[in-house]
Amino acid sequence: MKEYHFFASANTVGGFRNHFDSMTMGDFTYVLKGSSGSGKSTLMKSIGKHFEDKGYDVEYFHCSSDKDSLDGVRIVGKSVCIVDGTAPHVMEASLPQVNSRLVNICECISKDIKKHKEVLEKLVKEKAEKFNQMYGYLKSAGSLVEMEKGKSSNRIIEEKYLEIIKKLQIKKSSKHISPRLLYLRCVDKGGLYSLPHHLTTLNVDMQSIMGGTELMNRICKTLDNKNAQYIKIISPLGDDLLDGVAIPSSNLYICNNATDANTFKNNHLITLLLKKAGNTLNEARIIHKKIEKYYVSHMDFDKLNIIKENIIEEIESM
Questions:
Q1: Is 244 left (phi over 0), alpha (psi -120 to 50) or beta?
Q2: Average confidence (pLDDT) over 254-280
Q3: Choosing a second label site near 231 at 20 to 30 A (CA), which of 44, 180, 215, 216?
């Protein structure tokens, strides 16, 4: 039994990015629809823990706007995924009962919530304004990151590549599986937060941000040639940057230290902007918690528990 932790979406210098396809992996997917505070994250944590206790490997996908909440959970041995399909990462049941099922948690919310309509609409608007401010700071940080994109020498990349490949013992598979695209860092209060992932980390130091990414891409190409299952860990500092490469089957994470903002020439300005973005996100999170309180007080959690038990029973029968 192993547990893994990732982000399937992120607030980045280029805006909001969503890679839910890399979370679901074509598995049968339960798509949860519900409001803030309706218990979606708690339900997913509980189901994940249930199957962990039964000896299954479980992947937890954290919310990049609130790392203590979940966007999804995947029970690997059952080829089943449960995801939060509400905004901003809207997802639908594409082929209901064939490859997915819609789970309407809204039916657990009392209609009395309507009396708070004006307050809730005001809070939602205030939260959206905070997110807009956050993306402004991130965009400015991204402009500075662009100025850092120099290249390392081919000799250094070659040396590092050969050093890493010697440590990898990857057998060639007959079946090709496309790499997954996920994140291990997110913007948080105080700057960038790195998610504990429970993989053994191999740190790689490179002279430049693009040199590090070139090295990661070369490692990816070798893994592709072996049809190996792996995950490209994208950087929130740029869609074209890799924070590293994760190989869960080998319990290994190859970490590209060149994407650490502290190593940049403009590190003080970039770090300041990332902190401002994270602190603004925290202000949005505080507003979000206020919205949650209204819904929590109007939830029928006994009804939600029945929904959870039904999902568990269905998954166990698969």
A1: left
A2: 91
A3: 44
